[in-house]
Amino acid sequence: MKRSIAAFDFDGTLTTRDSFLAFIRYACGKWRYYAGFALYAPMLLLMLARLYPHDRAKQRLFSHFFKGWQHDRFAALAREFSTEIDKMRNHPVINRLQEHVARGDTVYIVSASLPEWIEPWCSQLGVNAVLATEIQVNSEGLITGRFKTRNCYGAEKVARLLQVEPNRWQYILHAYGDSAGDKEMIAFADEGTLITGQPLPPLRDDGLSNE
């Protein structure tokens, strides 16, 4: 019998705002944060106008703030950052995630943000795995400023899900997201839910096996 799987975006879905930007400010301080974004303002405006690739803009920002950092230091700050994520919980969607966990569904977080802070924060929620953008670290443990994987955004979210759950005909997929970066994942699902701030529809009883 078919299994049930739930895939949740992170930023703006399980949280009320973008954790990537919040982490930069947390790790680097507000003055360096504002100076960096002022420097890259023209690029960001082009990105918002869809004249500059989202993936490239994100990697350039990440490199500006974190290239050359020891990954151990970065990861330690990311674990500490979980207290800040608690302040941006989107409670109705987290409750929905816990409904999926309670009934035995396989639950994935599928996010363009980084596993260094998503995984520690989700560790007590019963999530099966985090599929996210991974960063490149060299042999000396230094962050290179590049991503090891493709940015987990848009169609890449579907690709990452299929890497871990390739037999699409064997499961019912529920997907939750709030932005253009989630539209492919939502369209790919049997039950796709766009998070808009309105009450969530009742969770469908698939009536299927999760064994």
Structure description:
With 211 residues, the protein is α/β, with parallel strands linked by helices. The protein has one domain: HAD superfamily/HAD-like (Rossmann fold), CATH 3.40.50. Helix content is 44%, strand content 17%. The protein contains ten helices and seven strands. It has helices spanning 19-28, 30-39, 41-48, 54-66, 71-80, 82-86, 91-102, 115-122, 155-164, 183-188; strands at residues 3-8, 106-111, 129-132, 135-137, 143-147, 171-177, 191-194. The strands form two sheets. Strands 3-2-1-6-7 form a five-stranded parallel beta sheet, with helices on both faces. The chain has a two-stranded antiparallel ribbon with strand order 4-5. Strand 2, helix 8 and strand 3 (129-132) form a beta-alpha-beta unit. Helix 1 packs across helix 2 and helix 5 packs parallel to helix 8. The longest helix has 13 residues, at 54-66. The mean pLDDT is 94.
Main attributes of the structure:
about 45% helix; globular; two-stranded antiparallel ribbon; about 15% strand; about 210 residues; 10 helices; alpha/beta
Whole-number radius of gyration?
18 Å
Compute the average pLDDT.
94
The tally of structural domains comes to: 1
Q: How many E strands?
A: 7
Give the SSE order as H and E letters: EHHHHHHHEHEEEHEHE
Strand content: 15-25%
Helix/strand/pairing category: alpha/beta
How do the strands line up in the largest sheet?
3-2-1-6-7
* N→C terminal distance: 8 Å
Full CATH superfamily name: HAD superfamily/HAD-like
What's the quick description here?
With 211 residues, the protein is an alpha/beta fold. It contains ten helices and seven strands.
